[in-house]
């Protein structure tokens, strides 16, 4: 069984931004790690911990994967060489991974959603999820399951302490 990625950072992994609403709005089917092509001022701005994945999404165009709507604010020490905050950024994936993504996206009603943006061994990476959008009733079912699981754990804790 595949291990579910936790919200905590792995060793050597410095999280810059995460998309917390993604797991609420989408059913995650598969997770990929991709490199991001950035300009120097973008990396400097990310090192300050500034970025937003709120409206970000990825698309596959002409055999290339692009991250769109990722907001990296301008570097405050930058000059005329500063970058545009919401420009499209190319993602680095293997050709076989891109071909698999193209096939899966065309088959079903799936989207590429960025889950987190982080530094790994000095390089900026993005965790991409192949996801299916949830309907309102799916979200309610997930919340009910989570509440029921929380209640079971709470009751087991009470029994272990001899309270009931």
TrEMBL record:
Presence of the UniProt keyword Cytoplasm in the record: yes
N-terminal signal peptide: none
InterPro entries attached to this UniProt entry: SmpB (IPR023620), SsrA-bd_prot (IPR000037), SsrA-bd_prot_CS (IPR020081)
Keywords assigned: Cytoplasm, RNA-binding
Compartments it resides in: Cytoplasm
One Pfam family of this chain: SmpB
Entry GO CC: cytosol
Domain of life: Bacteria
GO molecular function, one term: RNA binding
Predominant place of localization: cytoplasm
Family to which this protein belongs: Belongs to the SmpB family.
Primary role: Required for rescue of stalled ribosomes mediated by trans-translation. Binds to transfer-messenger RNA (tmRNA), required for stable association of tmRNA with ribosomes. tmRNA and SmpB together mimic tRNA shape, replacing the anticodon stem-loop with SmpB. tmRNA is encoded by the ssrA gene; the 2 termini fold to resemble tRNA(Ala) and it encodes a 'tag peptide', a short internal open reading frame. During trans-translation Ala-aminoacylated tmRNA acts like a tRNA, entering the A-site of stalled ribosomes, displacing the stalled mRNA.
Classification via PANTHER family: SSRA-BINDING PROTEIN (PTHR30308:SF2), TMRNA-BINDING COMPONENT OF TRANS-TRANSLATION TAGGING COMPLEX (PTHR30308)
The name this protein goes by in its record: SsrA-binding protein
Species of origin: Mycobacterium cookii
Lineage: Bacteria, Bacillati, Actinomycetota, Actinomycetes, Mycobacteriales
């Amino acid at each position: 069984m595949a291990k579910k990625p936790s919200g905590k950072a792995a060793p050597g992994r410095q999280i810059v931004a995460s998309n917390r609403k993604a797991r609420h709005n989408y059913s995650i089917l598969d997770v990929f790690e991709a490199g991001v092509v950035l300009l120097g001022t973008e990396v400097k701005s990310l090192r300050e911990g500034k970025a937003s994945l709120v409206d970000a999404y990825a698309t596959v165009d002409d055999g290339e994967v692009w991250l769109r709507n990722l907001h990296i604010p301008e570097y405050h020490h930058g000059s005329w060489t500063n970058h545009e905050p919401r420009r499209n950024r190319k993602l680095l994936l293997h050709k076989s991974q891109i071909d698999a993504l193209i096939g899966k996206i065309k088959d079903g009603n799936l989207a590429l959603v960025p889950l987190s943006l982080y530094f790994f061994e000095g390089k900026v990476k993005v965790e991409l999820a192949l996801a299916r959008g949830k309907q309102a009733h799916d979200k309610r079912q997930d919340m009910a399951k989570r509440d029921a699981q929380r209640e079971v754990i709470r009751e087991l804790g009470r029994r272990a302490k001899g309270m009931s």
